[in-house]
Design goal:
There is one protein chain. The chain is of the alpha/beta class and about 425 residues long. It is built from 10 helices and 20 strands. The strands form 5 sheets. A 9-stranded mixed sheet has the order 1-2-3-13-4-14-18-16-17, with helices on both faces. It has a 3-stranded antiparallel sheet with strand order 5-6-9, with no helix packed on it. Helix 8 links the parallel strand 16 and strand 17 (about 370-375). The protein is globular, with a radius of gyration of 22 Å. It binds zinc ion (ZN). Zinc ion binds near residues 83 and 315.
């Protein structure tokens, strides 16, 4: 992808992907139009060299594979992973609370670790999936939903009632963070406001809705910011920017590679990856195993293939913040626009070691992409990500990387267009090695 297209492409992708479920839908559509065919877990798989396939799990994680033309055991897999989920709010069952004055607010639960106060006083909407009564109890019908228009707001208390608000303001997730949905105008709306909205949006009857996974998102959308439009500001840059980069690199990759190219966008990284669609599950290892078997490889040859494989685990990292220099490592603080970050940690929170870092640095070098290193300031704890969790399922060599961003887990994070371009170039170079 050209630099001129990168900002708008990422902006559109973020706006079309307000939550994990809809991000999975967005990626499916892009893959379908690039000729990838969907595989289902319950079917028999007959995959051939050169095939382009994808697979979804729980409607919220997605995996794409371009089967290599070479022998699988000798050429192995080139894997790029990222995650589809971002910290936000999830609507609880029986969510409506009617207060004095006919005000309806929704009972929500925090998903992952958002910076809570960034969610105040912003128009919000709802997206996710709704489960409708199906042919059997075991097979409810899924409908994806994105209300698009702003329907919710979490109003802040006025400063006049909390003069100390700017000196630090502890927040209760249960009391302070509940969004307002509307004012009741008819008695029939009591307890039904959200369901009525869903029914009219999906064109279904209330009696058909059995359950839902609904998440809140800010409707403002992604914006290019800065004197030269160098920044991109949006919710969910962590980690949809990496999902976008992996998807573009996969779609644009050569069709005659010897190695099998793999993109894995897992769900639930923000809650520890421990679900059936998360990186700690066998979902991706099983997909790769089934593809190998379909190509007539034995289990031993599949393990041989993993030894000839490499994985790039891509999740955003922290850019040097001009107001908080003291929070960063004195010699390794990646800057905005300085290229992809290789993440390292002495206590092995990342899968990176000197060898895998060297591999990634060479991949970047080949693509004329600069590379930076992130290690924590030794008095700051820091986070973890997908790489090491996945190695519990498949013994594979790999590296944890990401782009530098500000305000990780804010509902408006900031990265740069040039770093997105660099990462797409690095991923393309990796796939086409
Ligand atoms: Zn992340």
């Amino acid at each position: 992808m050209k630099l001129e297209q990168t900002g708008i492409s990422l902006q559109n992708f973020l706006n079309e992907s307000p939550c994990n479920f809809i991000a999975t839908q967005t990626i499916s559509k892009h893959l379908e139009s690039a000729g990838f065919k969907q595989l289902h877990q319950k079917d028999n798989w007959d995959v051939k060299p050169g095939d382009k396939v994808y697979f979804t799990k729980n409607d919220s994680s997605i995996f794409a594979i371009k089967v290599g033309k070479g022998n699988i055991s000798d050429n192995g897999f080139r894997i790029i992973t990222a995650h589809s989920d971002s910290p936000c709010f999830r609507i609880k069952p029986n969510p409506e609370i009617t207060t004095e004055g006919g005000i309806v607010k929704l009972n929500t639960e925090v998903y992952g670790g958002p910076i809570l106060y960034t969610w105040f006083d912003r128009p919000l909407s709802v997206a996710g999936r709704v489960l409708l009564r199906g042919k059997s109890a075991l097979a409810p019908e899924t409908k994806f939903v994105n209300i698009h228009r702003p329907i919710l707001i979490i109003p802040h208390l006025p400063i006049h009632f909390n003069r100390a608000v700017n000196e630090g303001n502890p927040l209760s997730k249960q009391k302070d963070m509940l969004p307002v949905l509307g004012l009741i105008t008819e008695e029939a709306e009591r307890g039904n406001m959200l369901i009525n909205l869903l029914c009219s949006h999906l064109n279904v009857d209330k009696s058909e809705i059995i359950d839902f996974d609904l998440l809140l998102y800010p409707t403002a959308g992604a914006a290019l910011v800065g004197a030269h439009n160098e920044f991109i500001c949006s919710a969910r840059i962590d980690d949809l920017s990496m999902a976008h980069a992996a998807m573009i690199a996969m779609i644009e990759s050569n069709d005659d590679n010897q190695a099998t190219l793999v993109m894995g966008i897992f769900d639930n990284e923000e809650t520890g990856s421990g679900t059936k669609q998360g990186a700690a599950s066998p979902v991706l290892a099983n997909i790769l195993r089934r593809i190998s078997y379909s190509l007539n490889a034995t289990e031993s040859q599949f393990i041989q293939a993993t030894a000839n494989s490499f994985m790039i685990s891509a999740d955003n990292g922290h850019a040097f913040h001009p107001n908080y220099a003291e929070k960063f490592d004195p010699t390794n603080h990646p800057v905005q626009g300085g290229g992809p970050i290789i993440k390292m940690n002495a206590n092995c929170k990342y899968m990176t070691d000197a060898k895998s870092a060297a591999v990634f640095a060479e991949i970047c070098n080949k693509a004329n992409v600069p590379v930076q290193y992130f290690v924590n300031h030794s008095d700051v704890a820091g986070g973890s990500t997908l790489g090491n969790i996945f190695t519990g399922q498949m013994e594979i060599e790999g590296v944890d990387v990401g782009n530098p961003i500000w305000a990780m887990h804010s509902c408006c994070e900031t990265g740069t267009v040039i770093d997105q371009y660099y990462m797409i170039s690095a991923f393309s170079s990796f796939y086409n090695l």
